[in-house]
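Hello support,

Our group uses your service weekly, and this is the first time we've seen a run hang past the timeout. The protein is Proteasome subunit alpha. I'm not sure whether the cause is the sequence or the server load. Input pasted verbatim:
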Amino acid sequence: MQGQQQQAYDRGITIFSPDGRLYQVEYAREAVKRGTASVGVRTAEGVVLAADKRSRSTLMEPESVEKLHKIDDHVGIASAGHVADARQLIDFARRQAQVNRLRYGEEMGIETLTKTVTDHIQQYTQVGGARPFGVALIVGGIEDGEPRLFETDPSGTPYEWKALSIGANRGDVREHLEEGYHEELTIEAGIELALSALSESGDDEGLEPHGVGLATVEVDDERYVDHDAASIEGYLDEFDLLAEADGEDGDEPADE
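Update from on-call engineer: The timeout came from a worker crash unrelated to the input. Re-ran successfully.
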C-alpha cells in the first residue's frame, strides 16, 4: 500500500507528498545533473560564461552543440540539462528582452529578465498535464554598469551568484570556484577560473578548443562576445589547460 501511495505522488506534479516534496521537480533537477557542465563567473570587469560542449561523435559538427546563447547585446545564457527544454526557455527570454526594448525603449535588466523566466518556469510546477523544465540556466550580463549573474532552477527559483556551476559534477566544480574566486578578478582571471573549473567536471586531462564554449560580457562595452575556437585555444594554452594532441573525446551524456 505504501508503495502505491508513493507512486501516486510520484506521478502527480501538482500533488505534494506527505513530507512536502514535489517529486517531478526533484526528477527535473536530476535531469540537469545528467547534462554536461556550464560555469559562470562574475568579475569586477564583467561576466564570463563557459560550457562543456564536447560532441558525442567525431562525425558531429561542433557548432551544432548549443550551450551558450546570446539573449540581447548585454546578456547571455548558459544551459545544462535537456537541450529542447533549454531552447524553449532561450526563445522565451529573447522575446521578453525584445518586447522590453520595443515597449520601454531600453534594455531589460538582468534581474528582471531572470525573474520573468523563472516565473514562466514556476507555472509548470502548478499546472496539471505538464511537466517541469528539465534544465537549469546561468543568466549573466551587465545591468546599470554592474555585472550580474543568476541561476534558474527547475522549481522556478532565481538565485544570484558570484560564481556557480550547473550540470555534471557540480559539487567538485563549485569547490574549485570557491577556492579560486575573489572579488577583484579581472576578466582574464575570470576566464582562467571558469575554464579551470570546467576542466574539473570531466574525467579527461585538459580541454579541447572545439569542446568548450566561452562567452564574455564586459562592463566597458556591455557587449556579448562569443569567443571562437582559435581564441579559446589561446586561452587554454596560456593557462596550461589544453588537452594532449592525441587525446580522444570520451562518451558524453545523452543530455547537454
